[in-house]
Amino acid sequence: MSSSTGPSPLFVPLNPSPRLVAQMTGLSLRQSELEVSQQINLKRMLRRIRASRRMALSGSPRSLRHRHRKPVMPTLQLPGALVPDHSEDADEWRDEEASVERMDIFMDISDDPRPSELHERAARLFNQVFAPEPAVRGSQVRVRRLSGAMTNCVFMMTIDPVPSVPSSRAPKMLMSTRQYAKGSGHTGKHTTPLPKKYLLRVYGTGVDEFLSRTKELYWLSQLTSLGFGPQLYGIFGNGRLEEFLESTTLTKDDIRHPSTSKHIARRMCELHSLVSYYRPYGDVGASSHPGVDLSGRPELWANVDSWLRLVHNKWSLIRRTCDANPQCAEILDNWPRLEQAAARLRRYIGRANAPVVFAHDDLQYGNILRLEHTGELVVVDFEYAGYNYRGFDIANHFCEWTADYHHPDHPHLLNESLYPDVTQREGFLRTYVKAKAFLDANMRADAEVVESDSDRLVDLRAIRLSEDRIRDEVAALDREVAFFVPASHLHWGIWGLLQACSSEIDFDYVGYAAQRLSIFLRQVADLEE
């Protein structure tokens, strides 16, 4: 780390050339190109948030606490509008209602259907979501299983020839999607072509018992309104249909590359910064939206408490499932010790007063896509997202460095030696600290910006940080992250026990749970209270 105490130029607002950034910062030309690219991405995010704020506030008296809009088509009614009772605050926000087609059907794949039958089922599902004209036939559909999901079965669905939908409905579904923006266009006065490819997600068996789909869909609707992640097209009884992003999924080696790791740090910081927009409601948020806790209570403890209750309820089944694994059986034999260690960790974290942000909570490499045409990283799969500790989200990502879910023999085992070292953590955290400084300075929208009709991207503040400040903040954040590492192992260890009793996915959840809970117990024993 440089010992210089001079100011470090950061995110200059006028989009200078990479060569100029290289001259100003001492970075290589390639590094400077990344800096400029990410600066543009950050500006786009701020622009989306400000535009969403203008839409949320325009035409609605600030004295109104609730406001509902008439749905434009048969919808899944996600939680409606609620404005916090502090009208003078320019950061007040209102939930966006999602208009998402909901079907009372299931996509059954439990019988491992032959390809022709799978295509017929997918066609029926597609027709209920979009009502294309004419209806899609099974012979037009191709479904291919994609790898990378541990909870769901994920497929790419291709339809050829491309179907059409009545133009009166197309803008509501497609105007915000990347495919439509690329120029699908109208083919006539009455119909508009739909995209050719889709992502079909079928939920795993028993998952809803310990995962809130209502919460997941709530946050997906909010993030979609800001342009984060893929567009959500339709929801059915055991899954959903989404926009397909032309991309490649990151690998275990990709996330270790310094430039990619810094890119991930920026993406994570952007998500965390949304807490400035979607601020917790406090006590009222726990009951204001059925199935969605917006009080700001950390998801870590909400999940651990809920999952521990499920473990007790399923104790006999868990014992039968896990007894064949000696390591897991030993943990179960001494279960009160684990619960006491969890309580000790909770006290330890509680005294740290760690900040709570909007967190992804499962940022493993399989949940990060690199778009083919731009190289931009897109975070997907928000099943576990919500208000949570910043340190947990970062620590959990670092723990995922140790995983190889495609290992030919032991995809369930972690290699602890691959946890990022000091230099690797510093590269990630330096980028996070700098991005946070930029976003903190530019996130809060002035009232005239929020309520302006101008579509212009407002000038953003340039941020200059001394090396001393960067070094101090990185060191403090590294300490904060460290005591959430055992929390990550506890969280996913309990999750693994429950998955072992319900999931039909070919994965050694028992071995996975045993290792993670063993690491948790060892690391908590090393804590100094």
From TrEMBL:
One of its GO terms (molecular function) is ethanolamine kinase activity. SUPFAM superfamilies: Protein kinase-like (PK-like) (SSF56112). GO terms for cellular component: cytoplasm. CDD domains: ETNK_euk. Pfam families: Choline_kinase (PF01633). Coiled coil: none annotated. InterPro entries: Kinase-like_dom_sf. GO terms for biological process: phosphatidylethanolamine biosynthetic process. Belongs to the choline/ethanolamine kinase family. This is Uncharacterized protein. The lineage of its organism: Eukaryota, Fungi, Fungi incertae sedis, Zoopagomycota, Kickxellomycotina.
